[in-house]
Amino acid sequence: MSLKEKLVETASFMKEKGVKEIDFGLILGSGLGELADEIEDAVVISYHEIPHFPVSTVVGHAGQLVYGTLSGKKVLALQGRFHYYEGHSMQTVTYPVRVMAAMKAHSIIVTNACGGVNTTFSPGDLMLITDQINFMGANPLIGANEEEMGPRFPDMSQAYNGDYRNKAKEVAEKHGLHLKEGVYMGFSGPTYETPAEIHMARTLGADAVGMSTVPEVIVAVHSGLKVLGISCITNLAAGMQATLNHEEVVETTERVKTEFKALVKETLAAL
Ligand code: HPA
Question: Domain 3-270: which topology?
Answer without folding.
Answer: Rossmann fold (3.40.50)
